[in-house]
């Protein structure tokens, strides 16, 4: 068991004009499940590979526990890349398929058998140990692959988009299984994904990255409820948070013909700016007497809830085409009609997020 | 309607049963060729008179692998040739199906399992490992990190007395400008774990010669790779008086089958020492030379053997001062082609032409030793065809498979070795506590924030 720390870690590819990973500082607790998430090219995989020893660290440091592993070869870091090797060997039993790497490492047979037995118990594979892999299902094969990493008892598990080659159904069940297994094992885990839903449902904490820079690292709920900046606000959540630009007026921010009230101390933080960005999640909108007025373009009913999609009312036709879409969750019992105009307001002032347009940082 | 992504469209692909999951394709579309194990569904399919390999895999992996194989092909690195990706497949019940990646079946190729099925001499195993190491070093030279290095992901072709290895699976691969030591080390690490597993599996199946030990084989991979890499890329420094060492380095690399396209050469400020490092080395030194001289496209060691025979021919016919292109043409028409033409059409699927010529030369050498006389080439060819070639299995496609040995095990599914053997124990599947829970899985694409809040509350309570 161990902590993992990135200290000002940088990776610059030869010839690139900006670092793939830029001064990353991240402390991962002992036994924590940390998910790195972000769009393609954000540096999440590179960060993982720096920890694995597959990418050079051009400056800064990486520590596992008290050890500086920055310049250690991959095999000396006591980490396991899970799911690196899926191939199951047809002549060998499931137990041998799980334990052969221990044999290679010279672990005595009694110890090997014990570790395989324990891992199989955790993975629900005890009944399969003496069988050949022939009859295993796709999910069971995956678990044998997980077992291979578990029996090695590494200090850290690394997983790089492990679910990306599974179909949707298996992806959801494996997601739950990996998270449950990690909790039981308590082994520090760094997990990379581009899928924010995966990140939010699996991680103890989630590190959001963009353009090589760590944007925010927090528990999933904090990321959701208090995003530090515009990028995190837009990236986390589905459907995404509505981010509306408005002008600063006395007492609030004017969006269309409505002034969204904003506390004075918040407005004071935006000194010298004319405009601010107001963020409200679709489920934090309510249809009200007063509020932002919306031309409803599409109504989508999904069981008890529905979503309405539209744009600010009163825009000239040519602007309407390019106008930002606003999404709100509404009750499906009496949803607004397509083509109607509704007024939307925030259900509660704490669900209104205010961002500086200039710095893109949260000021509320 | 399936869509076909291909650099060269092949209309014969269109009528195939794309609406059927690959695992359920009718037998008349399939060919049971020996191959390695795989985690995806892989089948050899008949397309007109050609045989292609088809792999069913999710879209981004199919596209990625197609791209990677295309890159390798462009860089002239030994890999199977990608032909197409078939996307937008829909089953008859309307369910979408994963795309299929199609590659050309490599003629005369041998998956390691089919080599081992018929018993393998210990030194052959060493040669397979050597071929694997050369392939890995060549991939690393072009900036290709493989990820899933294993015998199952390689095809072997006979190459004179050696083997040449071809990459088959590029799913986990990445291309970089240049590889870091860590990336190469990791490939080696993966290679040793995977090959260890594969050798243990052969051992468990009774197919590995008892004199061979998986661990020793795997250790030799490490040693050989590091030796080769050091020769290919290492810095050498020596006194300025030993300039000949530059030439020596180039010759050593040539002998290993590599050409030096660019050498970095530095002298110390006082000019007393020279430092050299090969910057760009290309494999295929002999095969390129042979191709230029004769138009024959062969493996590297075959080319070396043929070139040596050409040199002997030149010397024997007293043409040392004649232009080598002229000699090459004479050798081709007077030696190579007559031997190849002597092979009856029905035996030509057993070995490729260059391999046959190489084996005839070997046959002649042994016959000459035995009978203490000079054996004419055509006489040796005749003897080889009748004594050796006739009894060899067909390797072009292994279509006429040798009937299984009585104690050889039958595959559960002749089209898929990943499913194990027919005589493996069966019986009701054991209880799996995890699969029972898998069904109530939520929708993958939607973030259920209420569930997250409930979970967080549960933790703090």
Topology record:
The complex is a heterodimer of chains A (364) and B (461).
Chain A: E1 4-11, E2 21-28, E3 33-37, H1 44-52, E4 59-64, E5 67-68, E6 79-81, H2 94-104, H3 109-123, H4 138-150, E7 156-160, H5 168-185, E8 188-193, H6 196-202, E9 205-210, E10 213-218, H7 220-225, H8 230-235, E11 242-249, E12 252-255, E13 258-261, H9 264-268, E14 275-280, E15 285-302, E16 305-312, H10 317-322, E17 326-331, E18 341-346, E19 353-356
Parallel strand pairs in A: 3-8, 3-9, 6-7, 7-8
Antiparallel strand pairs in A: 1-2, 1-4, 4-5, 9-10, 11-12, 11-14, 12-13, 14-19, 15-16, 15-18, 16-17
Chain B: E1 3-6, E2 30-31, E3 41-47, E4 50-56, H1 59-74, E5 82-87, E6 89-90, E7 96-97, E8 100-104, E9 109-110, H2 112-117, H3 122-141, E10 144-145, E11 154-159, E12 162-167, E13 174-175, H4 181-204, H5 214-233, E14 236-239, H6 244-255, E15 258-267, E16 273-283, H7 285-294, H8 300-316, H9 324-341, H10 353-371, H11 377-387, H12 433-437, H13 449-460
Q: Could you walk me through the main structural features you see in this protein, from its secondary elements to its overall organization?
A:
The complex is a heterodimer of chains A (364) and B (461). Chain A is an alpha+beta fold and 364 residues long. Chain A is built from 10 helices and 19 strands. Chain A has a 6-stranded mixed sheet, sandwiched between helices. Chain B folds into 4 domains: 3-104, Phosphorylase Kinase, domain 1, CATH 3.30.200; 109-233, Transferase(Phosphotransferase) domain 1 (Transferase(Phosphotransferase), domain 1, Orthogonal Bundle); 236-283, no CATH class; 286-391, no CATH class. The longest helix of chain B has 24 residues, at 181-204. The N and C termini of chain B lie far apart (54 Å). Chains A and B meet through helix 2, helix 4, helix 5, helix 6 and helix 7 of A and helix 4, helix 5, helix 12 and helix 13 of B.
């Amino acid at each position: 068991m161990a902590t993992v720390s990135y200290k000002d870690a940088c990776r610059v590819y030869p010839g690139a004009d900006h670092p793939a990973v830029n001064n990353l500082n991240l402390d991962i607790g002992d036994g924590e499940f940390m998910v790195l998430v972000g769009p393609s090219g954000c540096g999440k995989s590179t960060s993982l590979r720096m920890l694995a020893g597959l990418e050079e660290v051009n400056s800064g440091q990486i520590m596992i526990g008290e050890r500086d592993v920055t310049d250690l070869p991959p095999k000396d870091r006591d980490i396991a890349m899970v799911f690196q090797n899926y191939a199951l060997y047809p002549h060998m039993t499931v137990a041998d398929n799980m334990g052969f790497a221990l044999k290679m490492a010279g672990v005595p047979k009694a110890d090997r058998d014990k570790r395989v037995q324990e891992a199989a118990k955790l993975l629900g594979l005890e009944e399969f140990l003496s069988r050949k892999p022939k009859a295993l299902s796709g999910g069971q094969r995956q678990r044998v692959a997980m077992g291979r990493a578990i029996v090695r008892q590494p200090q850290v598990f690394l997983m790089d988009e492990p679910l990306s080659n599974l179909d949707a159904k298996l992806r959801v069940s494996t997601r739950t299984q990996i998270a449950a297994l990690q909790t039981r094992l308590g082994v520090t885990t760094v997990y990379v994904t581009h899928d924010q839903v995966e990140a939010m449902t699996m991680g103890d904490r989630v590190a959001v990255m963009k353009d090589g820079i760590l944007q925010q690292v927090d528990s999933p709920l904090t990321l959701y409820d208090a995003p530090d900046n515009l990028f995190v606000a837009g990236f986390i959540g589905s459907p995404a948070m509505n981010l509306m630009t408005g002008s600063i007026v006395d007492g609030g921010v004017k969006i269309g013909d409505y002034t969204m009230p904003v506390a004075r101390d918040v407005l004071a933080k935006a000194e010298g700016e004319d405009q601010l960005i107001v963020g409200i999640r679709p489920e934090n909108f309510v249809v009200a007497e007063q509020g932002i007025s919306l031309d409803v373009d599409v109504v989508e009913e999904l069981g008890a809830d529905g979503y309405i999609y539209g744009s600010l009312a009163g825009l000239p036709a040519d602007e309407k085409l390019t106008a930002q879409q606003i999404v709100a969750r509404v009750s499906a019992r009496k949803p607004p009609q397509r083509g109607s105009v509704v007024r939307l307001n925030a259900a509660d002032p704490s669900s209104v997020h205010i961002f500086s347009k200039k710095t893109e940082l949260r000021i509320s | 309607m399936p869509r076909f992504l291909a650099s060269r469209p092949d209309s014969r692909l269109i009528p195939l049963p794309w609406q059927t999951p690959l695992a359920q394709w009718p037998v008349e579309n399939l060919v049971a060729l020996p191959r390695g194990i795989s985690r995806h569904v892989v089948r050899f399919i008949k397309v007109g008179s050609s045989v292609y390999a088809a792999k069913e895999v999710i879209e981004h992996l199919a596209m990625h692998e197609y791209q990677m194989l295309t890159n390798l092909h462009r860089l002239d690195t030994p890999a199977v040739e990608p032909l197409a990706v078939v996307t937008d497949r829909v089953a008859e019940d309307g369910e979408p199906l994963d795309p299929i990646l199609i590659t050309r079946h490599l003629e005369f190729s041998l998956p390691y399992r089919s080599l081992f099925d018929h018993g393998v001499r210990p030194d052959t195993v060493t040669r397979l490992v050597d071929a694997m190491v050369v392939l890995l070093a060549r991939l690393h030279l072009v900036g290709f990190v493989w990820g899933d290095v294993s015998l199952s992901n390689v095809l072997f072709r006979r190459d004179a007395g050696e083997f040449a290895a071809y990459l088959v699976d590029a799913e986990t691969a990445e291309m970089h400008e240049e590889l870091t030591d860590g990336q190469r080390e990791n490939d080696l690490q993966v290679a040793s774990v995977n090959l260890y597993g594969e050798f243990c599996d052969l051992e468990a199946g009774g197919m590995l010669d008892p004199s061979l030990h998986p661990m020793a084989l795997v250790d030799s991979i490490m040693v050989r790779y590091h030796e080769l890499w050091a020769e290919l890329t290492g810095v050498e420094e020596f006194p300025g008086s030993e300039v000949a060492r530059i030439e020596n380095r180039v010759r050593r690399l040539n002998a290993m089958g590599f050409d030096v396209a660019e050498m970095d050469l530095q002298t110390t400020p006082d000019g007393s020492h020279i430092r050299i490092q090969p910057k760009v080395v290309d494999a295929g030194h002999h095969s390129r030379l042979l191709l230029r001289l004769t138009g024959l496209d062969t493996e590297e060691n075959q080319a070396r053997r043929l070139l040596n025979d050409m040199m002997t021919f030149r010397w024997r016919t007293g043409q040392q001062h004649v232009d080598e292109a002229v000699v090459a043409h004479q050798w081709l028409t007077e030696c190579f082609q007559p031997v190849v033409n002597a092979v009856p059409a029905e035996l030509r699927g057993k070995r490729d032409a260059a391999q046959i010529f190489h084996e005839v030369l070997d046959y002649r050498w042994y016959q000459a030793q035995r009978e203490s006389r000079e054996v004419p080439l055509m006489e040796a060819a005749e003897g080889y065809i009748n004594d050796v070639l006739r009894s060899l299995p067909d390797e072009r496609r292994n279509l006429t498979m040798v009937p299984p040995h009585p104690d050889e095990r039958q595959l559960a599914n002749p089209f898929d070795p990943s499913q194990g053997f027919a005589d493996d124990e069966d019986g009701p599947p054991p209880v799996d506590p995890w699969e029972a829970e898998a069904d109530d899985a939520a929708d993958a694409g939607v973030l259920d924030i209420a569930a997250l809040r409930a979970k967080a509350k549960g933790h703090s309570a």
